Amino acid sequence: MMRNLANQHFLHFVKTWNEGRSGPTWFGPTTAQSCSRIDYVLLPKAFSSSVQSCRVWYRSGYRLQLANTYRQIDHSPVVITFKYRSWFLPKRTTTLTDRAAILRDYRSGRTQPFQECLQRQLEQISIQGEQSEQVDVQWNKIKNAVQAAAETCYPLRGPLFSYQRSAETKEKWAELQHFRATVRKWNFGDLPYSAFYHWYVAVRLVRLKRAVAQSTKHDWRLYTERLLELLHTAEAEHDHRTMWQIARVLAKTHVGPKRRVYSLTSHTFPTLAEWQAHLAQEGPAGGCEATLIASDFQQPLPVQSLSLDLAETYSRDSLPICFSASGAEQDVEILKHQLGQARSYRAVPRWSASREAWLLALSDSNSNCYQQLQQMFNTTRRVHLSPQLWCVSQTAQIPKNNGKCGCKALRLVHLLDPAGKAWHRGLWKRAEHPRSLRQTGFTPHRRREQAIQQVRCLLWRLSAAKVSWCFVKWDIANAFPSPKHDVLDSVIEEDCCKTDVPFLTQRHRRACMVVSVGTGDLLCQIGCGDLQGDTCAPVKFIRVYDPIVASWMSMTEPEKQQSLKFHNPVTNKWFDCSCIIAADDLVRIGIVSDLSQLSNIFRTWDSTFDRKLDRVGMAQNKMKKTLLYHPSGKGALAQTRKAQRRDADCSDLQLQK
Predict the structure, then answer these.
(1) Which InterPro entries match (predicted)?
(2) Taking CA atoms, which of 28, 50, 60, 133 is between 20 and 30 Å from 398?
């Protein structure tokens, strides 16, 4: 029975017995013989090959028990050790800087020490090759100098808000532990007047624990006073992030994102081979037609050196290119402006400098770093190639909590270089990108609640007028990584300036991703779609998706749908409120008379929509498709019963109850 339970839930048995030190996991309060033991621990099967040991921590169990006794009573924790490497790198190789201190100096104008350190770093790092042709080498020099200067001037300090015991408290706690260890060695049966010794031990333990508690209480009082001083200082400096962190610590709640779900744990851990096979699939199947570039099962990949090799192999995109270098002098200002508008404390790839460090580096327009960035952008405009490292992302695996296993249970969010992300965002925002009135997702001054309210009001009006209606909702499978690159290129050519088209198309055509798991790293190039996490990716998808929906609406619009159009007095245009888009979710409402008409309309809508999506490389998610039918007026009861019996007219309709 236990084996069937474990197989049903993908679990694995781990025994707690080992040859070194094995014993009970629970000790009774009466005699030492009244004890029991946990024999097995159930773990996910994905951990079975990573388990190193399973031990019982008796010393920790004795410290955690509430009873003041000389021997152990109650449960002892069972600890399992795994051999599993996180995708975060060791501290000696990661970009660990005090971003709060960088922002304070940037806002107050104290940038001279950092600029001097950056100048020394630029002098130490030499460029190999000609500057006029080596765009990636120039970028690596500037980026490495900014990263090294930030780590030198603003090293990451320890946690400011953590509680630490004073020396007096540590001394009293050591005295308590020493007395417990001494009593544990005594044999009370051989001691004369053992009852008095028992009384002495109990009184001594109570006094020592009381002294430790009083000293700890005093330390907590001083710790709270220090937090209040830091709170007032942060308020004076208008540091709202630090104020929020201190308030959460004083309230004794967690410090983290508001939407973090701590009860959600991933029960699946795909390997490199599984990720490679999954990403090689087409976009609608969950992949991105990825091709393998490099992999390492032992240590992280040298992404910076690999990007230099990739930059030499890539050829220029086959697009109409204007060979003038106009606009190069504005690129640094675009980069600086977009970095200033970006959010602080954002995660960056392990090979990139933070957004805060770039703000400090670009604060002086006469600095050497500023001049070298201008030279790099001149070279970029001349050869029409942006640094390859800007197109390489480090992926973070986010659980979807969808009940699936393997790679389908995880969503890949891409971390991109903040400088490259800001520059491409500036180029993209220089052009106007039209959006239809039916789009509410990823659109300024519109919210998804607007789509919900619009649908509910329309359905209520149709029901009040006793008009039978149907409600259909479609969802795009793996939306962002699915569109073909040719379709994305056509959108960019239509909207953006000709001098910016090559760089914006390289953003998705030369995109690569690093997938990190416990056994190594995987570097692959995507063959379709865009990177979820890039600023321009949502608007690109909308520009591809909107024309498809507009063409589909014009081809499948029955005569009765004309009554669902309203006149917009602001724009003086007619608006079809029967169709609305929220990101990749599409909702359409139709007027039907009976089930036979509903079946014909639904088949026409569904088949035409599939053909439209297939032309651009996308497909709908069949599992999330929703169909509702609400008959009204004369014969509504008969139509409802007919739908419940699933007669011949509606046998192919998957109506939602």
Answers:
(1) Endo/exonu/phosph_ase_sf
(2) 50
